[in-house]
Amino acid sequence: MKADEVPQDKRDFKEGDKIHKLMYAVDTDGKYTGITSAGWEAENIATKQAWDAVDEELAETAEKVKRGELSPIAYFMQKNLMEVSLLAKYAGKWQWQVKRHFKPAVFKKLSGDMLAKYAAIFNITADELKNFGK
């Protein structure tokens, strides 16, 4: 691809023009050079659809937290695009323990230290974690 052919279709979601990716193209001298690209329409549409699906799932999880079906840990894990296995590693717990912490009754009994550890992982305060959905 030549440098003047690098796609520059503007994105119309999330961060907008702030996100660019580095692509390599051939310049006028025939040498490879790095060019920033805003992407192209097909890629932008697919990315928007993927983020819309993530946002929809996150909204469903938030509703489950508000209804008392899940603890806020499940919401913040999903918001941070984490899987149970990764969260368990960060928290220093077994996966089954983290899954147990998704239960509101178990969440209410977590120690202050454990809540602080989860809050630090999610980059929020322990109060934000405890009071989410209320």
What's the SSE blueprint?
Elements: E1 21-26, E2 32-37, H1 41-66, H2 72-79, H3 84-91, H4 95-101, H5 104-108, H6 112-122, H7 126-131
Antiparallel strand pairs: 1-2
Helix pairs in contact: 1-2, 3-4
Please give a structural write-up.
It is a single chain. The protein is built from seven helices and two strands. It is mainly alpha-helical and 134 residues long. The protein folds into two domains: 3-39, no CATH class; 50-131, 434 Repressor (Amino-terminal Domain) (Orthogonal Bundle), CATH 1.10.260. It is elongated, with a radius of gyration of 21 Å. It starts with 20 loop residues before the first strand and ends with a helix.
Key terms for this structure?
134 residues, mainly alpha, 434 Repressor (Amino-terminal Domain), two-stranded antiparallel ribbon, elongated
What is the string of helix and strand elements?
EEHHHHHHH
Radius of gyration from CA coordinates? 21 Å
**Distance, first to last CA:** 53 Å
Q: pLDDT average, as an integer?
A: 87
Helical fraction equals 40-55%
How many domains is the backbone divided into?
A: 2
Q: Give the second-level CATH assignment, the architecture of the largest domain.
A: Orthogonal Bundle
Number of helices: 7
Low-confidence stretches: none
Please tell me what the overall shape is: elongated
Provide the CATH topology of the largest domain. 434 Repressor (Amino-terminal Domain)
Describe the biggest sheet?
2 strands, antiparallel
Trace the largest sheet across and list its strands.
Answer: 1-2
What proportion strand?
5-15%
Q: Total strand count, please?
A: 2
User: What class would the helix/strand composition place it in?
Assistant: mainly alpha
For the record, the CATH class of the largest domain is: Mainly Alpha
